[in-house]
Design a protein that fits this description.
Chains A, B: Keywords: Aminoacyl-tRNA synthetase, ATP-binding, Cytoplasm, Ligase, Nucleotide-binding, Protein biosynthesis. Chains A, B: Belongs to the class-II aminoacyl-tRNA synthetase family. Type 2 subfamily. Chains A, B: This is Probable aspartate--tRNA ligase, cytoplasmic. Chains A, B: One of its GO terms (cellular component) is cytosol. Two copies of one chain form a homodimer. By secondary structure, chain A is an alpha+beta fold. Among the domains of chain A are: 100 residues, Beta Barrel (OB fold (Dihydrolipoamide Acetyltransferase, E2P)); 312 residues, BirA Bifunctional Protein, domain 2 (2-Layer Sandwich). The first copy, chain A, has an eight-stranded mixed sheet with strand order 7-11-12-17-16-15-14-13, sandwiched between helices. A five-stranded mixed β-barrel of chain A has the order 2-3-4-6-5. Chain A starts with 32 loop residues before the first helix and ends in a 21-residue tail after the last helix. Chains A and B meet through β6, α7, α8, β7 and β8 of A and β6, α7, α8, β7 and β8 of B.
């Protein structure tokens, strides 16, 4: 029996691309076309902002009437095209066509493409019939990448060597439903004039063969153009509304119709195909990656906290609970205890990236029931400012790197969701306010309703936003720290600032070595020093009105009694929030892959 | 108001280390000692296997009696020491001691260390009084790293410049409870003879100052030596047993006592401090990292599937369910549907790393209720073998890299959990068996009870193990693929092998383009091609006896009707399993950070 038993069983069922090994070592995200372009033509394409807007179909507010007419015309054309497609189904290839075999449904037997032409597997985004002899298509690769394809019937009789393109083939290609997945053989050529509608504007593809790999339906639940518009209604009142029930309800005064979040989510595949969504997703994943790489370079070890826990340990009622065999289980609200267990367990610096859950019935743009937490915890060598500086450092690193890497993507997102350019502090110019200073600023220079905010009460969301505006105006930054929160605003594990208390007058506000960080006036991080002595911890738990012997708490305190735990601190970042507020999105729901809200669990 | 409002409020409450910036750019995992060593002495230390075993206290089976006596003596010494410690509490520093201020509880005012000596923040692992003038301690940094510290009372009167070490100071240091966290000032010197018990054997630290940062209790729930022994009983029958209730129950014939999983988990901090646990954790995290980096280099995009889902979508009853506001929520069993949604949503290659949940009441070494899934999905260009080769490639990459990076750690794990060296195929010599061939092998050359295994039935766990033994013997590898599983053994989304069915005889077994991958005879991966046409998918769902209109399924099928979805396939890897089986651990519970079983949710 030979060791390799595999090859004899290889019967290709789809398309063969000669010269392409099935597992190429460097598979570029944009497929094979870009590298081929680069090799043959040594070009780099650029897209002006204007071209991009055209492509996005989210047109700028100039020449409204013209745009409106254009949009209508496009819509009509699309409708007509679809109607035509229904009459002449894509599968109908004329039997006596000389181009037969160069187009149609993908056959089950292997196809061998010939010559030095290019093979592109892509989504057919739109198609347009120019004449009986000519049609145009827009082909989209992953991300924000489109190119025009042109198919022209060859003059008869065809030259010996040239590929045959027949009129039925032109008609067939023009009739492919938008968003179908196709494979085309084509030659790269210069268009007569730049193709403004496509991201690649200086080249086009002369299609010589075209096969349908996966047909889209004649009627789409929503169009790509709509999926690339801003979500007009974030309400998810109607639970599990089906596609089509509430369809493209609001029509903007210009451009393609915009849809509600319900329509977007009910058409999840189309939503995800929109370049703006892919840009947000790419930025999100890179933020995770930057968090991880920054910390790994500084000696942090990753660990995995559990999602299922045995007790609603941190107090509060916002826990999901479920039957768990003979007992009850809860979903973790944060990895707080587990981060500290890792420190108690002999790690000096740890971080985790994990889902966390909140059973809060909050239907706001800042809340989800499931989101991704970026968390870290570290030994403190001198004082807790080490933790503050590190967290400030990792956030600024993420923001600066994203700004550097994703210029195009940020521009694209801003063309759909307009926002001001984010202001970050120069290195060494970071803004760190004491909580009391922040409150004073609000009292003295904030809106009238905050004239009497107190130093011993937590900040409300409106207060935070007002503070953000003040800080931006005074210090020219959208990112800043508020430190030394009052103990009333912090959980039991927050370490009190002993030094301040010792030196302060009777009745002074007790503060903690704990801080929040803000972006555009919204909280994105909570952090600080934790209590590491069991007696001190137990006293604080009691002071907060919690029984130290209650389930979950007892095991937590016990860990500090079991072994000597070094001084430590850390913080937690909501990934969804830093994505949303960094990009100036109106809701964290827009930053998530599959947003979970009290009313929505699908898809 | 100045922009930086921070510095004036900095009142250090702990220790100051001059010359060390609080946020050093390159913080080495092993703290400051190793780099200092390297700089001053240009040495690299090596530890022989024998030395390591000594350090581990998991002694080899030679000279049993001597070892036993030694172990007993050590235990007695430790007890005596602890008794002494209780009589002379660590906090009692003699007031008229000339060394006063050089040792003791960490003061709240800043301490300034002087001179060119070394500062080490570490866990004091053991201590031993040699005489009234001399004591030894073992200091442990993160991971498997220990060094001997020696403290000797200075001759009186002391020389002018030299630091003062008094006899009370020696006694105080020797009385520190094991596993306390300390900071020491010391000078590096050569020991008289190599320190076999410590990982760093050719150097020791002459301690000049020592402060207690976090004291451990006099009596530990379990010792580090025990935490570094193999777990002797993986049963977790007693739910939530408290530390001490079932203490160190089984005593091996040699070395320190070994404990059950219950004792290990009830003493979570001590368990995590054991070098063997940190080695397993480091390997686990690197496996995740290697999975990610291999895929990113090949154009895969990460995404995040939800944990909370609205329907028990993949069928089966092993779902955790919970009240979710006005509806019901489930915990995801796999990211299968969501991976496919990403492909439908215009991504060509995606992967995810996320927790998955199974409400299976299976109390076996192979099962947990929560574990980490490494998943990927990709467009298929030619045929599904692209998916198979890629998954095989990523697994072999992980195994080979871990072998290269973690030689020491693997050796350490094997010294605690003995296993045979893993056999991997040479590149190009990968073993890929058809399912029918695997069954034939079992029938013809396997144990007698498998003489009649059938080609249309899934493999049982004992069958898999027997096959693993046969493959190892015949092909010299512990890693292999079994391909073309019968359709009865696969879920509805598995693509049937149309080509085989068309060419085969009446009544032949229907097979799928789906495969499993095995390590040491245990399944670690399931993968294959998925159905991408909605009608075909619906037919298979019906054929499996599931209603395509049932909750969750309807939305899934709908996605394929909404848009054209390219041919695709993928696979899922259980991270816990590849860690456990790669290292030859007896249970996946030993590979997890916080194992979740039907009876255990704590800590």
């Amino acid at each position: 029996m030979p060791v390799c038993l595999w090859n004899h069983a290889l019967i290709p069922t789809c398309l063969v691309e000669p010269g392409k090994h099935h597992e190429s070592a460097t598979y570029l995200p944009r497929g094979i076309l870009v590298p081929l372009f680069r090799r043959h033509f040594q070009f780099t394409y650029t897209v002006s902002q204007q071209q991009q807007r055209n492509m996005d179909e989210a047109a700028p507010p100039s020449k409204k009437a013209a745009k409106k007419a254009e949009a209508k015309a496009r819509k009509e054309a699309l409708k007509a095209q679809r109607a035509e497609a229904r009459q002449a189904p894509s599968s109908a290839v004329e039997l006596d066509d000389p181009a037969k075999g160069f187009y149609g449904q993908a056959p089950t037997a292997p196809i061998v493409f010939q010559g030095k032409t290019i093979i592109l597997r892509a989504w057919l985004q739109t198609s347009r019939t120019q004449s009986a002899k000519m049609a145009f298509v827009e082909l989209r690769e992953e991300g924000n990448w489109t190119i025009q394809g042109v198919v022209t019937a060859t003059s008869e009789p065809p030259e010996q060597e040239s590929p045959i393109v027949s009129r039925p083939m032109v008609r067939w290609i023009a009739g492919i439903n938008p968003e179908s997945f196709v494979v085309v053989e084509a030659e790269v050529q210069r268009p007569i004039e730049p193709v403004k509608r496509c991201r690649v504007s200086n080249f086009e593809l002369r299609i010589t063969r075209c096969y349908l790999l996966a047909p889209a339906p004649a009627i789409l639940g929503t169009t790509l153009a709509t999926a690339n518009r801003p979500v007009v209604d974030l309400n998810d009142e109607a639970i599990g509304a089906k596609a089509g029930v509430r369809e493209e309800e609001e029509t903007d005064k210009e451009g393609p119709p915009a849809a509600s979040m319900l329509v977007h989510l009910d058409n999840i595949a189309m939503r995800k195909r929109a370049p703006v969504q892919q840009a947000i997703a790419d930025i999100r994943m890179e933020m995770k990656h930057l968090f991880r790489s920054y910390l790994k370079a500084r000696g942090f070890k990753e660990f995995e906290p559990p999602s299922l826990i045995g007790a609603a340990s941190e107090g509060g009622s916002n826990f999901f609970r479920m039957p768990y065999f003979s007992q009850e289980a809860f979903l973790a609200q944060s990895p707080q205890f587990y981060k500290q267990f890792e420190i108690a367990g002999g790690r000096k610096r740890v971080f985790s990236i994990a889902p966390v859950f909140r059973a809060e019935n909050s239907n706001t743009p800042r809340h989800m029931t499931e989101f991704t937490g970026l968390d870290l915890e570290m030994e403190i060598r001198k004082d807790y400012s080490e933790v503050l500086y590190l967290l400030e450092g990792v956030l600024l690193y993420i923001f600066r790197q994203v700004h550097r890497i994703f210029k195009d993507e940020i521009e694209l997102v801003r063309s759909v969701y307009p926002s001001s350019e984010i202001l970050l502090p120069e290195p060494g110019q970071e803004v760190r306010l004491m909580f009391t200073q922040a409150q004073q600023l609000l009292r003295e220079e904030g809106p009238a309703e905050f004239r009497h905010v107190r130093d011993d009460e937590d900040m409300s969301t409106p207060q935070e936003k007002a503070l953000g505006a003040l800080v931006r105006q005074k210090f020219n930054t959208d990112f800043y720290v508020v430190d030394k929160f009052p103990e009333t605003a912090r959980p039991f594990y927050a370490k009190l600032d002993d030094t301040a208390a010792a030196g302060s007058a009777e009745g002074a506000v007790k503060v903690t070595n704990a801080f929040d960080m803000f972006l555009r006036g919204q909280e994105i991080l909570s952090g600080g020093q934790r209590i590491n002595h069991p007696d001190e911890l137990e006293a604080r738990i009691r002071a907060k009105g919690i029984d130290p012997a209650s389930p979950g708490i007892d095991g937590y305190v016990q860990v500090f009694r079991q072994v000597g735990v070094p001084p430590h601190g850390g913080g937690g970042i909501g990934l969804d929030r830093i994505v949303a507020w960094y990009l100036g999105l109106p809701s964290v729901h827009l930053a998530a892959y599959y947003p979970r809200t009290p009313r929505r669990l699908l898809p």
